[in-house]
Amino acid sequence: QVQLVESGGGLVQAGGSVRLSCATSGRTSSSRTMGWFRQAPGKEREFVAAIRWIIGSTYYLDSVKGRFTISRDNAKNTLYLQMNSLKPEDTAVYYCAASITNLIMSRVISAHEYDYWGQGTQVTVSS
How far is CA 11 from the centre of its chain? Predict the structure, then answer.
């Protein structure tokens, strides 16, 4: 089992920045791919970014490229999402997820490929 706990969400003005953290515990060595998803009210959960835990390859939703950066601290078993130049359309609950598989690019965007999920943290961007 892997436990994931997100933190760092909140209210921010458009153009501002927020850094989300996802602390992992349990059988963390089994996590091969980790990602961030988001879900806005009335919408489906959407892929935001992912990282291959060992080699560090990253993948991003097109609309966040150049604004968001996913990273991890292996020693702290923590995943991060640095979000800059935030827009009101970035408002959502952000979820951290972990997969026991080294997901290829075509699969990292699918929520079904992930085995463990955090409880989510709200990010609200005001205009």
Answer: 17
